[in-house]
């Protein structure tokens, strides 16, 4: 922020060096988003100002005023819309690596890893974000230093928890979120509604912490909606927005006296009994307008209505702002919906600012404060540009390799998942349940040679394939619910999309190896199936992984968990019709033949059927044998006659769905800001 009263350029961060803060300047900043293909809406309009090191800056305004949008633009987190204007860090255009390395962003809602303790979570973040060359001792030292400064040592070994698992308190979660942001010693700290969901005591505690960080030399910018009076007084500078336009930008002064003085010059002042912050929000929200003289208002509006020269209500106070034409307000005065002079009894009358059409943005843009701010802003930028460029623009946006990232995620998050019954239980339980169900229904029937039993075993093999397809729905929550954390960690530069996907894939693959082996042992030997156990296990495992990556693909492409859970079973059901059991391949209508070749359930079922029935034991002189079953299902020639070709094609589906899931995760964003 820029306060032109009695300060020079150096006091605005013109020499921000080392680990100290960075001066952020922005000029003529516009932000527009498309509502339809042809229509757009302007969210921010013509904003100019600066945030400087060593001061605690507040971004305030009514809901929908654009405060979070402005902070997202300044932090480089906007992923949609059209941006015009200039944003500079220390007088220079920030590259993506500058945003990743020198800024930290504390989001409104805490996106932490619920399975880890506070210490484990901070070590996990430090290991991913600090360079791989950093030793374990150095990371531990950094984590303990941050925990100590944020009073987190008392809960360092407590699990973070979530809605279902009791963990640390809301205030401790917020401080953990801030601690995570401070691990890399950022020079700029952005906080979006840091007091959301906290009681007044915890909110005051968080704001005091932010003030302390600013005092240490960081550039600290926070959006805040309804702070307590104590919290509001901790801010040193204020940017006030309404409908995407600047209402006020400058120093607050002690107990917000400078801000109150500015509005007083416009003719608006709080009563002695008013809370300054509540009065300010109500005023710019259009819910409150203070007038010293209702008669003067009525006379002014009548002059406007009669087409006379417009005269400001506040000419006597030196204001440059005039009220717009509004006949309805005269009627409000006449109908005594606002107090008349007698009713006021010396007190300030209050009517709706929106009814008067008072333009606070116009008042600010034409004020001396705005002109002085712009002049000093230009001077500040020119001076900063002549200084040394301390930004390393060639550095990678992600500090570590894919291997290091995967290893770290596995070390902390995957091992925590493996020790969590809520994670392992569903993945293991259904395999045991269905395995025992098949055992009870098909025990020792695999080597029988009567037609009914052989058809029954063929149906069982198809059932094995089908339940893996439907079982894939169990994996959509794994990624859908994890996406907010993934988006935040990727934006923070902890890892790339590839790192995250490989880690998730391996996490599920190791579990799938064990569960597939367990299911295969139960089913293969209890049913006394023929052919190779290794083939049965491998086909089952590949199909299980196919289902998992298909679930990841749909969860990545679809914005909500509910929609993903509805789409996946529908897709699997359609595939079941054309896998060769409901309709024999050569009986499928010609117009649908193409779909059988694109069916990921077809190939594992054919492989299992060939493994079971294409054996010498069944090639006897009987009229009905294994070969007859294969002929009935059109599996005696071509693609359908080779086990390994069908296994290979099934593996190709695994690769294909994995690539689709990775690309969807990388390029389809449901966190558009």
Automatic annotation (TrEMBL):
PROSITE patterns referenced in this protein's UniProt entry, alphabetically: ABC_TRANSPORTER_2 (PS50893)
Intracellular or extracellular location(s): Membrane
GO terms, molecular function: ABC-type transporter activity; ATP binding; ATP hydrolysis activity
UniProt keyword annotation of Transmembrane helix present: yes
TM region(s), chain numbering: 428-445, 457-476, 509-527, 534-554, 566-585, 592-610, 643-665
Biased composition (Basic and acidic residues): 301-318
Bilayer disposition of the protein: Multi-pass membrane protein
Annotated Gene Ontology cellular component terms: membrane
Alphabetically ordered keywords of this record: ATP-binding, Membrane, Nucleotide-binding, Transmembrane, Transmembrane helix, Transport
Location of region: Disordered: 301-325
Keyword Transmembrane among record annotations: yes
Domain ABC transporter, first and last residues per copy: 24-268
Domain of life: Eukaryota
Pfam families noted in UniProt: ABC2_membrane, ABC_tran
Name assigned to this protein: ABC transporter domain-containing protein
Organism listed in the record: Amorphochlora amoebiformis
């Amino acid at each position: 922020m820029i306060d032109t009263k009695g300060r020079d350029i150096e006091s605005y961060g013109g020499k921000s060096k080392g680990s100290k803060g960075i001066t952020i300047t922005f000029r003529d900043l516009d932000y527009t988003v498309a509502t339809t293909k042809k229509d757009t809406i302007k969210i921010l309009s013509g904003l100019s100002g600066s945030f400087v090191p060593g001061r605690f800056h507040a971004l305030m305004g009514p809901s929908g005023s654009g405060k979070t949008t402005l902070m997202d633009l300044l932090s480089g987190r906007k992923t949609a819309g059209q941006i015009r204007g200039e944003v500079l860090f220390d007088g220079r255009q920030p590259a993506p690596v500058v945003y990743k390395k020198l800024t930290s962003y504390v989001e409104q809602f805490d996106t932490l890893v619920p399975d880890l303790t506070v210490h484990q979570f901070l070590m996990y973040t430090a290991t991913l974000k600090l360079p791989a060359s950093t030793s374990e001792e150095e990371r531990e030292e950094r984590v303990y230093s941050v925990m100590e400064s944020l009073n987190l040592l008392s809960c360092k070994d407590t699990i973070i928890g979530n809605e279902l698992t009791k963990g640390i308190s809301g205030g401790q979660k917020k401080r953990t979120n801030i601690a995570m942001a401070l691990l890399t010693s950022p020079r700029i700290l952005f906080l979006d509604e840091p007091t959301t969901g906290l009681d007044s005591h915890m909110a005051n505690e968080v704001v005091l912490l932010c003030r302390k960080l600013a005092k240490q030399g960081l550039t600290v910018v926070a959006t805040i909606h309804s702070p307590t009076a104590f919290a509001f007084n901790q801010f040193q500078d204020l940017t006030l927005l309404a409908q995407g336009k600047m209402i006020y930008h400058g120093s607050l002064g002690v107990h917000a006296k400078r801000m109150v003085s500015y509005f007083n010059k416009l003719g608006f002042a709080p009563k002695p009994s008013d809370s300054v912050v509540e009065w300010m929000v109500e005023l710019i929200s259009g819910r409150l307008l203070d007038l010293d003289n209702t008669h003067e208002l009525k006379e002014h509006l009548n002059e406007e209505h009669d087409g006379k020269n417009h005269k400001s209500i506040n000419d006597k106070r030196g204001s440059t702002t005039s009220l717009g034409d509004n006949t309805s307000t005269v009627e409000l005065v006449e109908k005594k919906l606002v107090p008349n002079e007698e009713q006021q009894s010396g007190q300030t009358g209050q009517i709706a600012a929106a009814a008067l059409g008072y333009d606070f943005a116009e008042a600010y843009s034409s004020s001396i404060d705005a002109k002085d701010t712009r002049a000093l802003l230009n001077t500040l930028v020119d001076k900063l540009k002549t200084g040394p460029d301390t930004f390393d623009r060639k550095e990678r946006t992600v500090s570590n390799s894919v291997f290091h990232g995967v290893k770290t995620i596995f070390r902390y998050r995957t091992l925590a998942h493996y020790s969590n019954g809520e994670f392992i239980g569903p993945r293991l339980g259904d395999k045991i349940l269905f395995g025992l169900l098949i055992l009870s229904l098909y025990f020792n029937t695999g080597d029988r040679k009567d037609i009914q039993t052989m058809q029954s075993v063929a149906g069982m093999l198809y059932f094995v394939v089908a339940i893996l397809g439907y079982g894939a729905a169990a994996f959509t929550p794994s990624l859908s619910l994890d996406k907010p954390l993934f988006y935040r960690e990727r934006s923070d530069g902890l890892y790339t999309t590839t790192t995250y996907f490989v880690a998730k894939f391996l996490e599920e693959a190791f579990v799938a190896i064990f569960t597939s082996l367990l299911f295969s042992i139960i089913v293969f030997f209890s049913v006394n199936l023929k052919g190779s156990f290794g083939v049965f296990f491998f086909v089952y495992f590949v199909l299980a992984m196919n289902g998992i990556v298909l679930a990841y693909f749909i969860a990545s492409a679809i914005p909500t968990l509910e929609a993903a859970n509805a789409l996946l079973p529908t897709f699997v059901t359609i595939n079941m019709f054309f896998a060769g059991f409901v309709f024999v391949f050569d009986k499928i209508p010609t117009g649908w033949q193409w779909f059988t070749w694109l069916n990921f359930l077809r190939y594992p079922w054919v492989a299992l059927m060939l493994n079971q029935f294409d054996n010498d034991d069944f090639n006897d002189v009987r009229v009905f044998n294994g070969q007859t079953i294969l002929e009935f299902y059109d599996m005696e020639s071509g693609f359908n006659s080779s086990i390994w070709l069908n296994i290979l094609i099934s593996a190709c589906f695994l690769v294909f769905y994995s690539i689709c899931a990775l690309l969807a995760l990388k390029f389809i964003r449901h966190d558009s800001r």
